[in-house]
Amino acid sequence: MIGDRIKRKRQALGLSLQDLADRLETLGIKLSRAALSNYETNKTSPNAKTLWGIATILGATLDYFVAEGEAEIVLQGFRKKASLSQTKVEQIRAYIHDEIEKRIELDAILGEDELKDVPVQRTVVSPGEAEEIAVAQRAAWKLGDQPIASATDLLESKGWYVLRVPDDEQGFDGMAGFIQATRRPFAVSRGEIAVDRIRLNLLHEAGHAFVTAEEEKLGEKAAFRFAASLLYPAERVWEEIGHKRTSIDIEELIVAKTRYGLSMQAIAYRLKDLGVISESYFVLLFRYFNGMGFRTEEPGSKDLKFDETPSAFRRKVYRAVSEGLIASSDAERFLPDFRAGSDSPVRLSAVEIKRLLSLPEEERNKVLEAAAQAAAGVYSDPDVNISGLADDIIEYS
Q1: Which residue, of 10, 35, 60, is where some domain finishes?
Q2: Using an 8 Å Cβ cutoff, are 265 and 295 in contact?
Q3: 185-190 and 122-123 beta bridge pairing
Q4: Looking at the structure, do residues 44 and 181 belong to the same domain, yes or no?
Q5: Is 65 within the bounds of a domain?
Q6: CA atoms of 27 and 192, how far apart (whole Å)
Q7: Is residue 68 part of a domain?
Q8: Contact 265/286 with Cβ under 8 angstroms?
Q9: What band does 355 get if pLDDT is binned at 50, 70 and 90?
């Protein structure tokens, strides 16, 4: 419903009800927090002018408010710093929910096949069991024992949704989950951090789809062990570094980091978990890391040659546009940085019309009236076919 989407979009942008009310007032629309709350709880609904104003403030297209369905998302992990406020947590969840819904909608438009390789989650009682599961998964994915060129590409090629959160969310690390209806999994990482951290974040979150534990702390350790094993297989560790070491040169860690795209700190954990170095030597290594400032920024991280930019969704949007399955307004809703060609007609797509016709008459009329409000400034332009909107709906119905 319209109210649910107003609330989610507001939360995704980190705005309070008062923030939204204040910004609406700059457009000449005076509303109280209570009135906005009534909209969001669907006790009342905004008139056309107010809906137009809300869409303007939230940076949403009007058809965002008539998108079909509500995806039920199951969360399997949410890693964050204790300092991250509940408001920020809600903002991140709303943002992810919005992005997942876009991907579900676009896949339905493209007629994408349902996920065939659904992850099977196993309960473990020790991190070592997660290692065994990762070895089996590497074999199932036919990865051999070579470095993973891109964790993002790997997951996307298996039908996963891979997301980045806004870059300013420094208290957030990652999240995993799946869509209830289809069991399609997703993995989320904070953006604009060192690529070695992104790789570990994504595969750590993916690990939650394969391993779980009765105790949360053990579950996190198991997910880390799963990710580290995928990124740096034990056989390669033993071959390149050895089965037992009493000391190790930092340059050895940098070489391994460059080859496998894993931080020196994560490699140190890997060596400890595999019994290559002792617990006491591991502690000495981390004291050295702390003293050198490596806990904040490691040497070589900016020079890693791994590309972890999600691309599947962007490719699908441009494919849908080129095949005439969605209009430019849909593409702009999916990808805010999408830019249509100057010769693109201003008309509704069949997808947009279908959404409009599925609404109750009262809500449909409000959306159409709001569209007219938004288009008021271009009525006088002879090159813009505003009347096409009505023509399209009549033809479609």
Answers
A1: 60
A2: yes
A3: unpaired
A4: no
A5: no
A6: 34
A7: no
A8: yes
A9: low
**Distance separating alpha carbons of residues 142 and 136, to the nearest angstrom:** 10
Which of 124-133, 316-325, 365-374 has the weakest average pLDDT? 365-374
3-state secondary structure of 376: helix
CA distance 198 to 188: 9
Q: Do 387 and 346 contact (CB within 8 A), yes or no?
A: no
Q: What tokens were used for 298?
A: 């490691």
The separation between the first and the last C-alpha atoms of the chain, rounded to the nearest angstrom, is: 22
151-168: average pLDDT: 90
Judge contact between 189 and 202, C-beta under 8 A: yes
Residue count of the chain:
397
Residue 294, in any domain of the structure: yes
Residue 209's nearest CA partner among 146, 169, 162 is: 162
Looking at the chain, the number of H-run helices and the number of E-run strands are: 18, 6
> What would the pLDDT profile of 290-322 be if each residue is shown by its tens digit?
999 998 889 988 889 999 999 999 999 999 999
Mean pLDDT of 47-75: 78
Which distant-in-sequence residues (6+ apart) come within 8 Å of 305 by Cβ? none
> Tokens 């909209």 belong to which residue?
39
Domain extent for 38? 2-60
Cβ-contact 222, 130 below 8 angstroms: yes
Fill in the DSSP letter of residue 116: S
pLDDT at 325 over 70: yes
